[in-house]
Amino acid sequence: MAGLYVHIPFCAKRCLYCDFFSTTQLGQRERYVEAVVREIRMRRNETDEPIRTIYLGGGTPSQLPAVSIARILDAAGRDGKEEITMELNPADATPEYLSELKRTGIQRLSIGVQSFQDELLLLIGRRHNAAQAIRAIRMAQEAGFENISIDLIYALPTQTMAQWMADIDRAIEMKIQHISSYGLMYEEGTALTLMRDRGQITPTDEETENEMYDSLCERLRQAGFVHYEVSNFALPGLEAKHNSSYWDGTPYIGVGAGAHSYTGNTRSWNPDDLEAYLRGIENGSLEREKEVLSEKDLYNERVMLGLRTNKGIPESYLDVHNGREVVTGLTRKQQWLRRTEDGRLVATQKGIHVLNRIIEDLMI
Ligand code: SF4
Predict the structure, then answer these.
(1) 193 and 336, same structural domain?
(2) Are residues 238 and 316 in the same domain?
(3) Which domain holds residue 185?
(4) Same domain, 80 and 144
(5) Ligand 1 midpoint to CA 250 (Å)
(6) DSSP helix/strand/coil, 73
(7) Which residues neighbour 267 within 8 Å (Cβ) at sequence distance 6 or greater?
(8) What is the Å distance from ligand 1's center to 320 Cα?
(9) C-alpha span between 38 and 35 (Å, rounded)
(10) Ligand 1: distance of its center to the CA of 285 in Å?
(11) Domain boundary residue among 187, 217, 247?
(12) Does residue 329 carry a pLDDT above 80?
């Protein structure tokens, strides 16, 4: 199977921590939808395998009216799809909009909650407050969405452990099926990084961040969630199919400005410049940059992505690339990796804290 990712780069306002490709030029939305529909029609048969999952991500896909979402899905085709996900900003949720989205064929929502604490949402420049986040989840449930994911961020400046645990408990209490959770990253050039550099905010120390992560894993495990990827947790059987394809090497086509595609041994990407993308599609001259992956690149990628998941990587795979001694060290001495009965290596909880070091050791 293959996946289709559609990037919708529009945001009503920029969050202070964000370095994703997004734009506040909302006046270009209609033109952009036309371009995306055209690109999907041109490229939907690019992989040998049929497209089974669709993911509308951003930016903020919920800045598009439901009729535009329907046009995009018409172009992609809804038949035979196992999962169609769309990201939703809580500030855009209304009962009417959510019912319309349901009718377009969106099966799964990924809601950008980030926190249920007003002061923290304000601090990172989100458009919504906690009450709106709660309302958005309820509205989505009432509109009939039975597979809802939310994003939660930890290690936010001033965030206490009590606030963090309250956020996790709120998600459990609200009967969310899937949680993606990330520690705050200070990306170069973002407003939040500037605030840190000026001493206006203090980043969370590493020890507290690790404690927050471990508490998240533990609490969600107790609540019956499967920790299937470093940052992703799902009730059994509700692991994200589209996102899983990124980690297990399934091909995907990425359409829209800045979107990346992967076809097994080639990676390509559209320009992350709105005007260059629109003109390229409109003139039929879109140039995508391309990289052909060598055996070494593919091996490194499999190690890097596989070890992020609870399936890990086959140990035999490492044998081919002289990882034997390193693996022995990592499993016996450090206990950062464990062997499964079917001969795979999976990062332990202790190992996840130092995953980048493990990956570096195993890469060639
Ligand atoms: S809504 Fe999402 S994509 Fe847009 S600025 Fe905020 S974090 Fe970035």
Answers:
(1) no
(2) no
(3) 2-247
(4) yes
(5) 26
(6) helix
(7) 260, 261, 290, 291, 293
(8) 42
(9) 5
(10) 29
(11) 247
(12) no
Residue 81 tokens read as 């799809």
User: Residue 248: which pLDDT band, with cuts at 50, 70 and 90?
Assistant: confident
**Positions of E strands within 161-229:** 178-183, 226-229
List the residue whose alpha carbon is closest to atom 2 of ligand 1: 59
Pocket test for ligand 1, best of 10, 14, 16, 17 (most atoms within 8 A of CB): 14
Task: Please report whether residue 184 resides in a domain.
Answer: yes
Domain assignment of residue 23, yes or no: yes
Overall pTM > 0.90? yes
- Supply the CATH number for residue 67's domain: 3.20.20.70
- Bridge partners (DSSP) of residue 289 are 269
Sign of CA dihedral 87, 89, 95, 100: negative
Measured by CA distance, the residue closest to atom 3 of ligand 1 is 59
- Helices H / strands E in the chain, number of each: 15, 15
Three-class SS state of 88: strand
Q: Closest residue (by CA) to atom 5 of ligand 1?
A: 14
Ligand 1 centroid–CA 176 distance in Å is 22
Q: Is residue 160 one of the residues assigned to a domain?
A: yes
- Provide the token pair at 171: 């998600």
Find the distance separating the first CA and the last CA of the chain, reported in whole Å. 29
Mean confidence (pLDDT) of the chain:
94
CA-nearest residue, atom 6 of ligand 1: 15
In the numeric block, which tokens belong to residue 222? 């107790």
103-116 confidence digits (pLDDT tens): 999 999 999 999 99
Measured from CB, residues less than 6 Å from any atom of ligand 1 are 11, 14-15, 18, 20, 22, 58-60, 89
CA distances from 168 to 150, 204, 224 (A): 11, 18, 13
Domain count of the fold of the chain = 2
pLDDT by residue (tens digit) across 47-64?
888 999 999 999 999 999
Q: How far apart are CA 290 and CA 12, in angstroms?
A: 31
Q: Does residue 329 lie in a domain region?
A: yes
The answer to whether residues 305 and 191 belong to one domain is no
- State the closest ligand 1 atom to the C-alpha of 22, by its place in the atom list counted from 1: 3
Whether the CA torsion 225, 227, 228, 232 is positive or negative: it is positive
